[in-house]
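hiii, so i know i said id send this last week but things got crazy w the move. better late than never?? heres the sequnce for the chain we talked about at the cafe, plus the structure i predicted for it. fair warning i was half asleep when i ran it
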Amino acid sequence: MRAFVYFVLPLLLAVGSSEQAAAKSMVTANGSRPGTYEVKHADGTLTHTTLNADGSYRDVAANGKLEAKGKWSVAGGKTCFAPSTKGAQAMCFKEAPAAKDGSFTATPDKGKPVMVKPAK
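okay and structure toks below
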């Protein structure tokens, strides 16, 4: 039994540390880091999207209502969102390079572009 623990424990620690390293290095398709972003939609409405380093996200309306939550990832040069919230649809965005202030335009596969900037 002791030999098993000595063999398996280092493997588990290595897997855990590599997952932590991957989470710390997660960035969007344009290189933006996890954090909270203000998103201005084409109709003028504002939402706040929080991208977490563990690959989870939350979209919150200006009135504080949770609109969607789930997982985010980068695929095919786009930042993609896979919501777990009932009624919310998966969506990928092609992002323009970020300006010096961290703002950028994100264009969904379907729909109008949104303006994104780090929340204050």
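btw The beta strands are 35-40, 46-51, 56-61, 66-75, 78-83, 91-95, 104-108, 114-118. thought thatd interest u
miss u guys!!
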